């Protein structure tokens, strides 16, 4: 059995760490530890085209139980966090050849925790449904953020609004005069 290693991301938060603990228990095929880490789970919604599920905790555990024996590895990429309670990850599950034939299942997973850092909800999306996953992340952030983060949320939404409208003067007005952006991506913004 091979399980890929997952290192701590510099933007990790309580939600991303809680899910890593759960997925590590799952990778060890420790159903009891996995279930214990889901003890506060209220819902699992699977928005993938072939699934469309809305499950409570017990239904979710029944749904995942069969994968304990089939999966042989996984990779995880932290895409975004919002505060301490929300994380969006790209998750690839590699299946054993003798279980269903060699295959990999890619998806996007939104993890939500409560104020104690316990997982309370999952939303899973097809890997190519990036816009829906990001929209769900931002919507949950607006709905759940503490008052101390409202200014950040308002600024983020206002900036996204002027960018969506391609209001470059409005965007310039939102930035400090000495603002500098360093984009190290291969293609960058331009």
Question: Could you explain the architecture of this structure?
Answer:
- Strand 1 (43-46) and strand 2 (53-55) form a beta hairpin.
- The chain contains eight helices and six strands.
- A six-stranded mixed beta sheet has the order 2-1-6-5-4-3, sandwiched between helices.
- It is 39% helix and 25% strand.
- The protein has helices at 14-27, 31-36, 57-65, 67-70, 97-100, 130-144, 150-164, 168-174, and strands at residues 43-46, 53-55, 71-82, 86-95, 103-113, 119-126.
- The N and C termini lie far apart (44 Å).
- It is globular.
- The chain is of the alpha+beta class and 190 residues long.
Keywords:
190 residues; 39% helix; 8 helices; disordered N terminus; 6 strands; alpha+beta; globular; six-stranded mixed β-sheet
């Amino acid at each position: 059995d091979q399980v890929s290693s997952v290192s701590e991301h510099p933007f990790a938060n309580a939600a991303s760490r809680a899910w890593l603990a759960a997925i590590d228990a799952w990778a060890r095929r420790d159903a009891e530890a996995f279930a214990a880490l889901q003890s506060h789970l209220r819902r699992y919604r699977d928005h993938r085209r072939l699934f469309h599920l809305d499950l409570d905790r017990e239904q979710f555990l029944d749904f995942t139980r069969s994968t304990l024996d089939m999966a042989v590895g996984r990779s995880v990429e932290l895409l975004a966090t919002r505060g301490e309670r929300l994380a969006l990850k790209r998750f690839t599950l590699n299946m054993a050849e003798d279980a269903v034939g060699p295959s990999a299942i890619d998806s996007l997973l939104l993890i939500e925790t409560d104020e104690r850092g316990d997982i309370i909800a999952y939303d899973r999306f097809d890997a190519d449904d990036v816009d829906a996953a990001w929209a769900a992340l931002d919507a949950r952030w607006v709905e759940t953020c503490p008052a101390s983060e409202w200014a950040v949320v308002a600024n983020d939404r206002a900036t996204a609004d002027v960018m969506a409208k391609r209001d470059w003067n409005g965007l310039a007005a939102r930035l400090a005069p000495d603002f500098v952006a360093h984009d190290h991506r291969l293609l960058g913004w331009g």
